[in-house]
Specification:
Layout lengths: L8 H8 L4 H8 L3 H9 L10 E6 L6 E5 L4 E5 L8 E6 L2 E5 L5 E4 L6 E3 L33 H5 L3 E6 L11 E5 L4 E5 L7 E2 L7 E7 L4 E6 L4 E5 L5 E5 L12 E6 L2 E11 L5 E12 L4 E5 L6 E4 L5 E3 L14 E4 L3 E2 L4 E2 L6 E4 L4 E3 L15 E3 L5
Parallel strand pairs: 20-22
Antiparallel strand pairs: 1-2, 1-27, 2-3, 4-5, 5-6, 6-7, 8-9, 9-10, 10-11, 12-13, 13-14, 14-15, 16-17, 17-18, 18-19, 20-21, 22-25, 23-24, 25-26
Helix pairs in contact: 2-3
Length: 383
């Protein structure tokens, strides 16, 4: 009789291709041979649903995650993330900021990490000016005035996108939107500091890295699309067409949809003086030849996962067995309020169906967030 641990490598590899992430880890715990197969598995052919990163578990400091596929919470001990605010998710990596405003780029499953240099420094004395960065670094401990360290912790960085998975390419770039006016800045391994891209009269709301064009692409509150040219000096240039809404939107996202750039407008309304609620999503497709911006009726059989994470597009037909998600739908999480620099405590999360314009929920009632734990989509990348 053949021992389970002696099964052929290709057979075991085939088995792991059908396993969700949690079962993949259980598989790796069976024996030494199975663990070797699990560790070698880097690119599962099937697609997994993203998880939600939540706050610290009370009393333990463990980081809480919500597995959407299983409708289940996990508390994982990641000491590097104790007390850190998660401000970005990209390629299965997280960026966390602690109370001292130091940053770390980490893969929470492999525990690989990079210590990030000090973030672009606020000129705290002139917080409201258009470009609130100083050329000369300052010490945040000099006194933030009305802006407490906790508030600065969630205000320093609003969005993080990696050009590539650091495990795939060592020459990756970390791009962020920083400060009250969401100024772009980037860092590459080996750099001693962030490079701030000086921009006037632009309010960026989102950006992506386009693999097809091999460049970062940004969108503004007025649906202007700009691309970043690194050579000879980093600078942004506008890409037509553009559309001017009646009022600027702080909830515009940009998405790479099968090679096409889409803008997703998140329409919100105030439910009180400080908090908003999402009421609608509009999807726009720029046509560069016609120099027009067209409204899309839907996103076909796909699902978008939007929030402070790098955009995620899921094809439900390619999901691993047992995983399900709604098609032609947008799964969204809370925004950090651009005006008040704080996390919306109203739990503005849900699913928007592009077909009938209705909302649904994807989360269990016990999901909540803390000041250092606004929910953010995350694609586990343990391979």
């Amino acid at each position: 009789m053949t021992c389970w641990s002696d099964l052929a490598y290709d057979v075991l590899e085939c088995i792991t291709s059908f396993l969700p992430l949690t079962d993949h880890h259980r598989f790796s715990a069976v024996c030494k041979n199975w663990r070797l197969v699990a560790k070698q598995k880097r690119h599962p052919p099937a697609t997994h649903l993203p998880w939600l990163v939540l706050g610290d578990e009370s009393g333990t400091g463990k980081r809480k995650f919500y597995n959407l596929s299983e409708d289940r919470h996990y508390a994982i001990d990641i000491p590097e993330l104790y007390g850190r605010y998660i401000c970005g998710s990209s390629h299965g990596w997280l960026v966390g900021i602690d109370i001292k405003l130091t940053g770390i780029l980490i893969n929470p499953f492999t525990r690989e990490f990079y210590e990030l240099p000090p973030f672009p420094q606020y000129d705290i004395g002139n917080w409201k000016k258009r470009n609130p960065f100083k050329n000369v670094p300052i010490d945040y401990r000099d006194g933030p005035g009305e802006y407490t360290f906790e508030r600065l912790q969630i205000s320093v960085v609003h969005k993080v996108v990696l050009s590539h998975d650091p495990k795939e390419r060592s020459d990756f770039t970390v791009m962020i939107l920083a400060g009250e006016y969401w100024i772009p800045a980037f860092w590459k391994p080996g750099d001693s500091s962030w490079t701030v891209i000086r921009v006037l009269k632009k309010t960026f709301t989102d950006f992506i890295y386009s693999n097809e064009h091999e460049q970062f692409v940004f969108v503004t509150a007025y649906n202007e699309i700009l691309a970043l040219d690194f050579e000879p000096d980093p600078k942004l240039y506008e890409i037509d067409p553009r559309v001017w809404p009646t009022r600027p939107s702080v909830g515009n996202y940009i998405v790479d949809y099968s090679g096409d750039i889409l803008i997703v407008e998140r329409v919100q309304w105030f439910i009180n003086n400080r908090h908003t609620k999402t009421k609608l999503f509009n999807v726009l497709r720029p046509d560069y030849e016609e120099e027009e911006m067209y409204h899309c009726s839907g996103i076909g059989e796909y699902a978008l996962f939007l929030g402070r994470n790098d955009f995620i597009v899921i094809d439900p037909t390619k999901l691993i067995l047992g995983c399900k998600c709604k098609t032609n739908s947008i799964y969204f999480t809370d925004l950090t309020d651009i005006f008040f620099n704080e996390v919306d405590s109203c739990n503005d999360l849900g699913i928007f169906n592009m077909g009938d314009k209705t909302f649904d929920t994807f989360y269990s009632p016990e999901i909540h967030h803390t000041f250092v734990g606004a929910p953010i989509w995350f694609t586990p990348n343990p391979w």
